[in-house]
């Protein structure tokens, strides 16, 4: 009996602490983005509400970070060097889990709301992405290639980090806008919201899926090139021949 009573007293503060944890109700402005002819990009609104136990907003400041991440892929990054006046592929490095798209927005700069350990655990920030390099390359070379990969994707608009762009109203409502470039890959994306207080991530498991897909003629070309490669190649050659013949016919008439 005493043992059960001691266990109850030990679990009581744990249960009380769980009841004091707020909840997130996240959402996105659109759960599906269609890429069609003339697609120039899109803007996505990530918003939601913070629900506090008994509706009481605690003292102190909370911060919010939102992360939109695309499906991961394996890539090989090659470095070009100019040798004897010719640019050729030189060193290379393999990465097993590179997100096809990564954007993070936060209410304040990340270094002001989380420490480096927490940022590494939750992959908060471009310099904290876990790209899983492979191969027999020393740490310095891997870091150099990883920095180059991040910088390349950042310049192409596929990696973004924006501080101070998450608006929080009355410690309850939040919203952030993220730009989707025209070159964004297709796939299922996840929008994650993290609630942060006193340098600690309180909630980081509320995900909303966003599907980006090609439609119309672009989707037809993608399917043909992927599933019917031989037929697609033959049709491409045939169309090129017909266009060349037609152009020659027109110029001969002129």
Record keyword descriptors for this entry.
Immunoglobulin-like; 4-stranded antiparallel beta sheet; 13 strands; 32% helix
Q: Structural class of the helix and strand makeup? A: alpha+beta
Strand order of the largest sheet: 2-13-12-4-7-9
At CATH level 2, the architecture of the largest domain is Sandwich
CATH class of the largest domain: Mainly Beta
Distance between the termini: 104 Å
Question: How is the topology of this model organized?
Answer:
Layout: H1 2-19, E1 23-28, E2 32-35, E3 42-51, E4 63-69, E5 72-83, E6 86-99, E7 102-106, H2 110-113, H3 116-122, E8 133-134, H4 139-155, E9 159-163, E10 167-169, E11 173-180, E12 187-197, E13 200-214, H5 217-227, H6 229-253
Parallel strand pairs: 2-13, 7-9
Antiparallel strand pairs: 1-3, 3-11, 4-7, 4-12, 5-6, 6-8, 10-11, 12-13
Helix pairs in contact: 5-6
């Amino acid at each position: 009996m005493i043992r059960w009573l001691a266990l109850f007293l030990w679990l009581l503060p744990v249960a009380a602490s769980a009841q004091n944890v707020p909840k997130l109700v996240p959402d996105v402005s659109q759960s599906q983005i269609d890429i069609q002819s003339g697609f120039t990009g899109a803007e996505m609104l990530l918003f939601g509400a913070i629900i506090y136990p008994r509706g009481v907003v605690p003292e102190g400041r909370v911060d919010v970070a939102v992360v939109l991440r695309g499906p991961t892929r394996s890539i090989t990054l090659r470095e070009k060097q100019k040798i004897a006046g010719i640019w050729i592929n030189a060193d290379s490095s393999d990465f097993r889990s590179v997100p096809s798209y990564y954007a993070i927005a936060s209410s304040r700069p990340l270094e002001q709301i989380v420490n480096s350990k927490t940022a590494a655990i939750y992959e908060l920030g471009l310099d904290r992405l876990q790209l899983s390099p492979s191969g027999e390359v020393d740490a310095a070379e891997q870091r150099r290639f990883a920095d180059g990969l991040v910088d390349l994707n950042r310049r192409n608009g596929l990696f973004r980090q924006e501080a101070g762009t998450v608006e929080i109203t009355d410690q309850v409502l939040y919203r952030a806008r993220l730009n989707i470039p025209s070159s964004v890959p297709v796939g299922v994306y996840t929008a994650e919201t993290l609630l942060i207080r006193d340098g600690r991530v309180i909630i980081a498991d509320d995900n909303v899926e966003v599907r980006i897909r090609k439609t119309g003629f672009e989707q037809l070309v993608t399917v043909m090139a992927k599933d019917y490669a031989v037929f697609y190649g033959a049709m491409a050659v045939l169309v090129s021949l017909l266009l060349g013949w037609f152009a020659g016919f027109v110029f001969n008439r002129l």
